[in-house]
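Table 4 source record.
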Amino acid sequence: MLWYEIKKVFSRFKNKMALALLFIILIVTSILTMNRVEYIDADGERYSGIAAAGKLRDVQNKWAGNLTEDVLADVVKENKRINHTIEGGSDDMEEQDKVYAQKQGISDLITLINTAFSEWRDYNYYAIGSISKKQAGQVYERRISALKEYMDSGEETFTEPQRKYLIEKYENLKTPFYYEYIGGWSAMLQNISTFILMLALVIGFFVSGIFSDEFQTKADSIFFSSKLGRNGATASKIGAGILITTVLYVVFVFFYTAIVLLALGADGAGCPIQLDLWRSAYNVTFLQAYLLIVVSGYVGTLFAAVVSMIVSAASRATATAVIVPFMILCAFPFLSRIITLPGICSFFPDQLMEVYINIKEFGLVELGGRVMNVPTVMIPVYMVICLLLLPVLYCVYKSSEVK
């Protein structure tokens, strides 16, 4: 019966169109992600995507290795050397592009140094030009001292446990950083949350009719009068919904990941996320950040799908159930900006789709004096909620009356 329910879902024309839409979203999002990587050659000609990735990898991997004080000092020296070329003093955009072309091998490292020596809420593009080689070796210490200055500034309110937690995370980060080309992972992490959100909305469309379609086609009297209609068949519908959600999610996230990394390169998986998100309090690598985003996105997708199926079973209206994932994953963010309940807003299900932002910012939850990051709390809580909602879904549909 399970495979029969799955076959029914994919035999419907609207779901075939939804599947085609998923492939379109996959292709478009992959192209947009790949175009995030750009390269300018010595003549000022611009490249993007696959053509740019290979060239950028070659020049940046010349600096691969641990970012020690000597390496960072060499970055400052190289930056000054390039700036003192004829092109470096020109106001002509083409000449400036040629200067940038010479800096591409150290562009990530220049950004790192500039961020370390900029104000907390600002970015000074020219900071590297005003520091000495000796100062460049102090970037790791600057990261910790800048955090303490920021917390003491009063711009944000931190409780004492939160202050202690953040400082401890900053101090425990392993240094010196290991660096290599990270273009593929950086581009993918910036877009993957958007891709997962669109994937979740389309998956919600797939499962929204599993229960209500029996009423729409007037087949409910036959379904519930059959021998297994109110138990085994109902369980099969639930199983079909969970399996469709899981398989579609895994397959399309895998396709997206494979396309982007094959095109842009998978180098840098073991590099610290701070190379891209300097002030992050998550001591994770790019690969670990990716896995956290994907797992959290799956839990959010599953929650939206289960709630959609409950609404479908209770309301007997597919159109109503289709709206549910949008309300859960898209409407709640707007609601969280309007209402003045920031503590509760941190637990809205849309936060499961915002892990990249939580990694970038200080997404913290304090429970009983213990401080944790938001995904650490959200993922297990919503996974348990999903499991608890399955018996509710079973009872709602099993007890449906034939009209």
